[in-house]
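User: Predict Inner membrane protein YgaP-like transmembrane domain-containing protein's structure from this.
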Amino acid sequence: MTLDSAVLAFAGCVVLLSATLSLTVHPWWIALTLFAGANMLQAAFTGFCPAAMVFKGLGVRPGTVFR
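Assistant:
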């Protein structure tokens, strides 16, 4: 798994988890979905992604987007 696919998989899991929690626990969990979406949008324009830095520190091999 490359860094790019790890970041996308993590973002997808966060979105699915927060949507599930907002339906089953409390509607305010949708704020986590909004945060994840805003973070993905800013990463698309700036190239800065905190999750990519964490995965890189864990030794995930580099991809083509996040280096």
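The chain has a mean pLDDT of 93.
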